[in-house]
Design brief:
Layout (H helix, E strand, L loop, with lengths): L9 H8 L9 H34 L1 H12 L4
Length: 77
C-alpha cells in the first residue's frame, strides 16, 4: 500500500488519535474509510448534478419532449 504525507489541523489530529473509539484498528484505516466515503459522496453529487442538467434540458426542449413521448407510445408493455 502506498503512503501519503499530509498536514492536519489540531482538531483533526485529535479525531485521528481517537480511532479506536470509532472502531478502527489504526489511523490509516480511519483515513481510508473517510476518503472512500468522501469519494462516494462526491460521485453521488456529480450524478445528481448531471441528472438535474438533463432534467432542465428536457423541460426546456419541446422537440425532445415530443421525441420521448413518441418513443414511449411504441414501447412494449
Amino acid at each position: 500500500m502506498q503512503q501519503a504525507k499530509f498536514s492536519c489541523k489540531e482538531n483533526q489530529v485529535e479525531f485521528l488519535n481517537n480511532y479506536k473509539e470509532y472502531g478502527f484498528k489504526d489511523k490509516s484505516s480511519l483515513v481510508r474509510e473517510a476518503l472512500n466515503r468522501l469519494k462516494k459522496e462526491l460521485e453521488s453529487q456529480q450524478l445528481k448534478e448531471s441528472a438535474d442538467l438533463y432534467t432542465e434540458t428536457y423541460m426546456e426542449n419541446s422537440d425532445l419532449k415530443a421525441l420521448t413521448e413518441s418513443a414511449a407510445q411504441v414501447w412494449p408493455e
